[in-house]
């Protein structure tokens, strides 16, 4: 993929991701009052608090835009223009989608459906945006800037504190029930976004320590048509040099592999662990 194609793909991901996020907010979170953090969460609270003074309340898109403007100015001063890059575009697109997508109640007032639907859609949207190596500004950007001063805490920890405060503030506006479901929605969001950014095709990494490593390696390569790597190892208890095989197989193949190992060496020491994402021949392409 050439540079122009990568740029076009990146902007398409940003547009699609922010659109999905905005739809989730307008169709599930806002109608039922789920405050899941971020500037959009503040926007939902502000809209509800101003309904008595402004018809329909202050629009969420306006709150998101107004809060981001001083934040981007501060980031420009502290980090420079290159740091902002497409993050500013993502933030503007999110405000745009929030302004043009009509209000609707997809979950019909059901808190559980709203948290599940909203969590899945928001996670999918965030996953697409993160796949373009971009953030949408808001509390993410605040956490990044605060990290410059509070180095003892990671950006993720600072972000959790900020969003946690927003969710707690939501209790006052929308009630404890909505806030509890909001926490559930945040959990679903994180799981779905991780699934998209890390890849959904999980594999298994297998470490095998056996004196019959040559026969096991032969079975892996010729019977299962998988590659394997021989790693030198030393058993610290006796100080003996050992040979350890390392290979990656699919979740279905791990059962077959263990059967081959058992038939060759019943005393083999086997470690099976999850491989979240595997790139290369026989697995996912780059």
Q: Would you write up a description of this structure?
A:
- With 286 residues, this protein is of the alpha+beta class.
- It has helices at 3-32, 38-49, 60-79, 81-84, 86-100, 111-131, 139-147, 155-174, 176-198, 213-223, 253-264; strands at 203-209, 229-235, 240-250, 269-275.
- It has a four-stranded antiparallel β-sheet with strand order 2-3-1-4.
- Strand 2 and strand 3 (240-250) form a beta hairpin.
Q: How is the secondary structure organized here?
A:
Layout: H1 3-32, H2 38-49, H3 60-79, H4 81-84, H5 86-100, H6 111-131, H7 139-147, H8 155-174, H9 176-198, E1 203-209, H10 213-223, E2 229-235, E3 240-250, H11 253-264, E4 269-275
Antiparallel strand pairs: 1-3, 1-4, 2-3
Helix pairs in contact: 1-5, 1-6, 2-3, 2-8, 3-5, 6-9, 7-8, 8-9, 10-11
Quick rundown:
Helix content is about 60%, strand content about 10%. The protein has helices spanning about 5-30, 40-50, 60-80, 80-85, 85-100, 110-130, 140-145, 155-175, 175-200, 215-225, 255-265; strands spanning about 205-210, 230-235, 240-250, 270-275.
């Amino acid at each position: 993929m050439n540079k122009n194609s990568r740029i076009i793909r990146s902007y398409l991901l940003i547009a699609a991701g922010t659109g999905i996020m905005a739809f989730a907010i307008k169709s599930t979170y806002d109608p039922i009052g789920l405050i899941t953090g971020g500037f959009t969460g503040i926007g939902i609270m502000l809209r509800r608090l101003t309904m008595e003074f402004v018809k329909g309340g202050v629009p969420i898109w306006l709150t998101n835009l107004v809060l981001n403007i001083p934040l981007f100015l501060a980031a420009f001063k502290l980090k420079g223009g290159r740091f902002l890059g497409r993050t500013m575009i993502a933030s503007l697109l999110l405000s745009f989608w929030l302004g043009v997508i009509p209000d609707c109640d997809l979950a019909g007032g059901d808190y559980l459906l709203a948290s599940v639907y909203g969590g899945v859609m928001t996670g999918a949207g965030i996953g697409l945006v993160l796949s373009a190596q971009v953030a949408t500004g808001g509390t993410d950007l605040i956490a990044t800037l605060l990290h410059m001063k509070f180095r003892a805490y990671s950006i993720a920890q600072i972000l959790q504190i900020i969003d946690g405060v927003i969710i707690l503030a939501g209790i006052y506006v929308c009630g404890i029930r909505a806030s509890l479901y909001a926490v559930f929605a945040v959990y679903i969001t994180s799981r779905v976004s991780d699934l998209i950014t890390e890849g959904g095709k999980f594999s298994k990494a297998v470490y095998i320590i056996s004196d019959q490593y040559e026969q096991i390696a032969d079975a892996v390569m010729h019977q299962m048509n998988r590659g394997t790597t021989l790693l030198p190892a030393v058993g610290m208890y006796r100080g003996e040099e050992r040979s350890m095989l390392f290979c990656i197989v699919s979740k279905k193949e791990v059962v077959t592999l263990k059967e081959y190992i058992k038939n060759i060496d019943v005393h083999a020491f086997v470690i099976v662990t999850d491989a979240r994402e595997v790139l290369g021949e026989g697995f996912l392409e780059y």
